Amino acid sequence: MPADINTLVERHNALKSDRATYDALCQELGDVIAPRKAEITDKQQHPSNAKEKRARNSTAATCNMTLAQGCMAYAVPFSEQWFACEPPADVTDDASFQWYAKCSEIILAGLASSNFYTEIHEACLDRSGFSTGNLYCEESIMSLSGLVFDAVPVGSYSIAENAEKVVDTVFREREMTAVQLAQEFGENALPEKVKKALSDNSQRNTQKFTAIHGVYPREDRNSMKIDAGNMAFASCWFMAGDKALLREGGYETNPYLVSRYLKWGASPYGWCPGWHALDPAKYLNRLEFLMDGVAEVQLYPRMLIPSTLDGVVGMGPGEVTIYNPFQQAMPSTWGTEGRIEAGLERLERREQEIKDAYHYDLFRMFSQIDKQMTAREVAERATEKLVLFSPTFLRMQQEWLEPLLQRVFRIYMRQRRFPNPPDSVIAMDGKGPHVRPPRIQFTSRVALAIRSLQSAGFMNLLEALQPMLAIDPSVRHVVNILPASKGMGRNFGVPEEWMASEEQYSAKVQAEQEAIRQQQGAENAANLINAGSKLKPEQVQGVMKAMGGKAA
Questions:
Q1: Which of 130, 279, 342, 450 has CB atoms 3.0–4.6 Å from 154's, for a disulfide?
Q2: pLDDT score for 433
């Protein structure tokens, strides 16, 4: 049934009221840690660097940037293949592996040619700086990649969770001009005040209106139908003040992908290192202010000028002050006893607290790992250092990356960007045949290094079996070479087309065996001829009789 505008407005207002405390905390965080994004409750109409000027110490902002960049380097490195699509666990044929591998390449190329990496960087900054990041993934008819992404700013959306604590409801506020609203929804769907602004050249591109996009699970739908009104998620654009429903549609999967750095109690919103670093960051700003005062006094000290001194006191370099030493009228400094060393010690301790909260030293250390280290050494080093970081890293994969890749896979299937799938990956249900969704394997540099430990274990096994072969050659049958070698290739990130399929492998083995049999047959025939040339005539006749033939 069509959405009710009054119900939509009530849900939006209730969720917005519920996030009020979170917005206030984020504004406080933004003022200190991310001034560029500090427009949650204190919104600015025009760009300003006023907040940056008030931040005297940039340690927290730098650490937040490092953490966000580290999340990208570990999870979605631009210069590496950081994921691989694989067939479902019960599908093992090579054709399926090769098809999903080709899909991985197409998706990776599509992400690279879209605005994905720029927007997920902004979303990572929100996630590490404000605890919650929201990335919008939609189809595009303008981009060659067929995709468009948007990092939804903190303070512009409300969220709710389902029974499994997965965010499935998002109400997003978006500021749009009259021209943008007309382009997006058509002039006929707009309320009168927007139409009026649209017809006024002084307002059509400048006056802003708030449109709200609500996406939530659709409860009253017919799952056997595939039209927009019966899709799993409802999509409603509306304007709350005018109670105008601009457009109603639907999605198969939620286009808003919300990830929390860590959970904040029972709230749907998250917790981030900024909560721990906020007080030290405020203290650092205050301490920097005091230390600047001490430094200024030491560089340009206060002066005591005797009232009996005649003439001008020279305060510049090389200037001369004339005084009478017999009248004790010499100028002197006072109040310069402040020790800047004490401030530096406190400054260093507080800065280290912030760095520890943001795992700053971890990312700096990993970026300095020797490039000549072996994969196993990198894996051991990374595993040791990722112990504290791994909970949020796994949450990022589960809440962001896997749903995102599954959504992009569906979009590209609809856009027919993939080659024809093999029969083994096609399933049937009430809606007809469809391609089974892939398993996602994350293959970033660190993930591959950790997975390569399987390969290292296999090589250790081969080394241990070596002396046993001299005693019992049948030990070699313990190892299943074909799947092991292909598994090692996948662990190392080798493309599927670089490895032979099972059919190609079997054909090559059979050809080699046939060549060996033919060579052995030729050698046996040559040996018989050589042996026959050395027999006497009567011996040849005896052999021929024994073989059932006649001697010539």
A1: 130
A2: 86
